[in-house]
Amino acid sequence: MPVIVIGAGAAGMLAAISAAENGKQVVLLEKNSKPGVKILMSGGTRCNITQATDRLGIVAAFGDQGPFLHSALAALGPDELVDLIEIEGVPTKKEPTGKIFPQSDRARDVRNALLNRLNRSGAQLVLGEAAKNMTSRSDGFLIETDQSSYQCGSVIVTSGGQSYPGCGTTGDGYAWAKSLGHTIVPPRPALVPLTTSPHWTNTLSGVTIADAELSLHQEASSDNATRAISRRGSLLLTHFGISGPVAMDISRFITTSPHRQRLSMTCDFLPNQSREQLTETWKQISVSDGKRPLQQSLSEMLPRRVVEQLLQEAGITIDRRFAELSRGDRDRLLTAIKAMEIPIAGNLGFKRAEVTAGGISLSEVDSKTLQSKRVPGLFFAGEVLDLDGPIGGYNFQAAFSTGWLAGQSVD
Fold first, then answer.
1. Would you say residue 222 has pLDDT above 60?
2. Most Cβ neighbours (<10 Å): which of 8, 29, 260, 273?
3. What does the alpha-carbon distance between residue 63 and residue 138 come to, in Å, rounded to a whole number?
4. Mean pLDDT across the stretch 140-158?
């Protein structure tokens, strides 16, 4: 009997390739009319394949979930993944952030590389056929689709989470897993743009700050001490709030926090300079060029529209000069630049989330094989699992690696 893989995304294609190259008869079912739809959309259609780090770097990035990935990364680590792509004629490049992209900046080149390997593996790709039901039987599984049915000895579920539902990732795998006795950690959007309360963020729509630091603070309570989480990177101000890599990255901690009502967020618009360094610079300007307008000097550090807004938030008119600032003025301006509060209103949900947090409980899946601990012959890989990492290629690496290991492990 064949091995059925459900979902031809990053995890599914690697699972099918791995199993087929191991001599298994493989049928890869995909509900969409083309495979790898999320790959094509990812990274602004550029596809951030992985991160320039080693296996332990990937594990560390996933925090408490990281140890689950040891065996998967041993089977296919970041270097092996890059080699797999490049062998298919797609050279890659490393950007300053450590993100690995195809040199062409075309996600379709990555998808086509995987499709070429899939075609050579001998796996059968069936497009436009959606799995509807999965039943465990004494001799394997019955997979019923909207067009047919398949009897198989093993099945690998790589149907994804709920992020970007337009890609076909509508959480189908959760219902199948639950019907077979698995626990589903409630899915939440992760790596998602955030909506904010203050009007000033909306008035600056379209402005990008190349380097900003967002910090989350949780108010102290009787059962949870105050803690801070910070992320740094490019920040995009929008008509609804904030986006860009740094906002998307920190969103994971907001959407998964059980104490969201106690979270507050601040922004450091100049994280490469401390408050003391800025204070000293301003004192020097006051002495050497005290008549220089504040707006002119600050606009050399930040976009002009942002400077105007920060001055307004600090209660300082744009025509003020450095020599005219009182100590109180400087303190308010420093706070506006280094610790501007951005009240969190919400997020744009699964429709705009790059990743799903939550999913099939890792405690019920054997990390050494990706086989269910509840149902022999049932395997899970990719975003359907309760695995979510930071922005920067980590999540694709986890999908590729878990898919590869699951494919190697099927009987």
1. no
2. 8
3. 38
4. 96
Q: What are the two backbone dihedrals, phi and then psi, of residue 302, each rounded to the nearest 5 degrees?
A: -140, 160
Q: Is the separation of the CB atoms in 348 and 340 below 8 Å? A: no
C-alpha span between 256 and 260 (Å, rounded): 8
Q: Quick check: 219 and 226 in contact, CB under 8 A?
A: yes
**Mean pLDDT for the chain?**
93
Number of domains in the chain: 2
Task: Give yes or no: residues 326 and 384 share one domain.
Answer: no
Summarised one tens digit per residue, pLDDT across range 366-394 is 999 999 999 999 999 999 999 999 999 99
Same domain? 329 vs 230: yes
Residue 344 CB contacts under 8 Å (≥ 6 apart), including other chains: 194, 195, 196, 197, 254, 260, 263, 264, 265
Residue 404, Cβ density class (10 Å: 0-12 exposed, 13-18 middle, ≥19 buried):
buried
- Indicate if 320 and 225 belong to the same structural domain: yes
Any idea what the CATH number is for the domain that residue 56 is in? 3.50.50.60
* Domain membership of residue 120 as a residue range: 3-190+351-409
Last residue of a domain, one of 325, 348, 371: 348
- Residues 6 or more apart from 313 whose CB is under 8 A from it? 200, 336, 340
